[in-house]
Request: fold
Amino acid sequence: MRPVSFAALIIIIIAMSYFSQGIQLLSPASGAWIVIKGSGLSSQHLSIQGLQRNVTISIDSTGMAHIYAYNDHDLFFAQGFYSAYQRLDQMEFQAILASGNLSKYIGKSGLASDKTMLLLGLSRNAYLLQNNLSTKYPSYYALIQDFSDGINSYIHSNYYVTPLVFKLAGIRPFDWSPFYSLVWQEYMSWSLTTGASEPLAYSLLYTSVAPSLAEQLWPYYPYYTENATVIPGDGEVNNYSLSRQGISPSYLWSLDWVQTWATGVNTSLLSRLTPLIRYALSNISDPYMSSFAHSFVGSNSWVITSGFSSTGSPMLANDPHLPLYSPSLWLPVQLVDPNFNVTGWELVGEPGVLIGHTAHTAWGLTTPEGNSANVYLEILNGPSYLFDGKWYPMQNVNYKLANGNYTVYYTNNGPLIARLSVDGNEYGISLNWVASRGDSYDLLAEMKLDNSSTYQDMLNALRYWGSPPQNFALVSTDHAGYITAGYYPLINETLPNGQKVQVIGSRSILNGTIDSYEPAGLVPFNYLPQAIDPERGYMYAPNQPTVWKNYPYPFIGGYWASGGRAQAINNFISSKSSFTIQQMMQLQSNITDYWAVQLNRLFLNSLFNMGKTGLEQQAYDYLSSWDGTASTDSVGMTVYWYTLSELDNISYGKIYAQYNLTSLPMPFASTTIYLALNQPNSSIFSGSFDNSVRTAFALAVSLLEKSLGSNVSSWQWGKVHMLQIQSYSGLSELSLGPYPIWGDSHTVSVGGVPEELVVPEPYVRVGSSLRFIASPLTGQFFGVIPGGASSNILSNFYSNQLQFWLNHQYYDMNNQSTVVRWELG
Amino acid sequence: MKFYQTVASLALSIIIAYLSLLYTPFAAMGIVVALPLFIFKPLRSFVAGLVIGLFSSLSMYLIYPLSKVSQLASILGSISGIPSILVILLYPVLFSLMAAFSGAMWSEIASALGRRRAARRNVQSIPS
Reply:
């Protein structure tokens, strides 16, 4: 061979060597293919370090793991091991996200999220909580440590298989610690906390439009919710109420709670602070969550008392509406040892079972939406803040981020979430959130629930629950009830008539420069909203107002759902003389929009005399024969939804656009119904509800024709309304769907999307993250999640439950065959 | 060249191929795989390296259920924007080409060294 040819050979080899570095991922034995190894489950003995005695894990045909141990240490250790086996990538991603370390892994695109997490103080709160938990409750902390040790045991074992996402990103797992479980608790807590953005948003609305219009659009209590609160009755709890304090509820609720007497902030100053408020809102919005879920999170639950149940057993139904990720936020497990026998769903990354049942009890969670955080106006001067006439230095907390240092400033109220010069003065807004107290022992409460035998055991467990407050639906073999457990900070208020009252939250920003509006303790446990075995036989908590207006600690701030799901649940249950398990399932799969049924009648009235084109007549015919059911094949639903969206756009949207409020959520459909019935000639509808509806209908038909063609019968809801269960990694290839999906934002079986004028609508990404039905006395327990146990896309348990979920079917949690058995030791 | 030398050379190359495939993710290990093939002439060494590299690396997929290989190939292909068949073949092809070209290279080097040694022997055998 000539030297030139030989040199060419060398060059080819060097070039190929260089190129081959980029394809290491495709190496058949050690590249991405290795994840196939982790996709199959087979019965085997697993030799792992750290167990005191042998543990058995039986995985049933639904993918639920039944973990049997001889002691608590081994039980939680094995839960950690199993959780890591199924979901290590998801757990670690969640920990990275919540602790504000995303940018270290994905670069600058993670910076905004990191800053938000650090600003909110999730890591700081988690460290404080970890300290308190380990000092005050060492035996419970030890179980969290056992769970963590189990995770690390998996990472360092011979059974560890690198997850696909780690392979693709080229990252190695880090060792777990209890801190990561707690920081994810903080993240979930923040995502379900109300009280920070709501007063800010209402301040924007209030200062932009006339106060009376603000109250019309966003009433304190949404319209038509008076007989549909979580706790039945007028609000009295354990013989304590506003009336018993000598305060007239009607007087208190007639007041304008944005006025200076209520907040300490002058309303004219509030108007000038608009840029600061907008800035604060953008700073506390989680960019990661916003990119996934664009509609409000909600949930359903209801309980049936023994007297109203067809079997005599109290019953419970729960389906928490959360972002639908792939894999799910939940992992189905049963934990059994001499102390525990609990079945349900682990919130991935947290030890124990968060929603589930024991042999005698069952519980579920929904979000009550009252203020557990407050926002305060601060007056600043460089590094100092003003309080009670004196200047104090702000505390600085420094973090290192990918692009340099990041400092969070703290006043006595909490982290400064925004600061800005307005009219030559420096103002800031600080966040006072109950989670920053570091005493939200939610995991302790969870473990006590997991160990409960009676209704009283569950109540006692919830004394430890802090943030976020939750509506706990509770049933035992003999009782059914609710308690809204958690920490609600109280604010001292002096009403204009001189009476004093303690309230929860605020309608607007509170004055943080004086002592008057500082948190003054928490709602005592005995006076938290609660009821047991109500006479009517049932209670329900789909995010509607928790209590009515005579509650002793009025909920001034926060946010309530419209109450559409509450009305639907109430109507369904109250129409029966007794209730069965099958009816529980039927109700959980209900896809009739309660508001749509009312509003469509008004639409049809308005459209009856309208001169219509041929296409409009066809659309009208579908609308007139529609019963309010949001099934995937419904054309009426599509016409209704786009008519409603167009109507919102030309009424509320016009006002929002005028005042640059387009980022705020639209008023509820119930508001439209109320205004249409009571003020049809309102300026909101440009003087005529009928004309607005006609215009909206014509626009909707035109939009649908343009996007879907002129064959009206093809305008089916499932074509414009689809579900995508997105991978936390953001990779659509690892996501599930899109699937045509039923429901809308107000149906019990929810399929919520914002009312946007696009065809199709944005993907549905929030929904029933699990469905659970329990009847402890008869030992009947049913459940399903939209996915599976494994985060490995090649596993048979990646999405094995999805089809059941889509079909509103359930797995019998008692009666499944074992498909895999592991012996750990 | 004796038969047993041929067999030993091929066997050694195959063993190295499997060891490198099992324990390293580097296709450049094809260079090492081809080392025992230096005893052949360049063209034969090229062909032997190509065949050993291709078959050894493709056979590694047999440790997995093929349906899952196909499923994962489709996902990886979709993420990377390349056809799934290429996802499966890319590494084996590169690995085998590395072995093939390296085989030719080792063979050339060996024959060059052989010629030099022979020349030196020739110089030494010339009577002074």
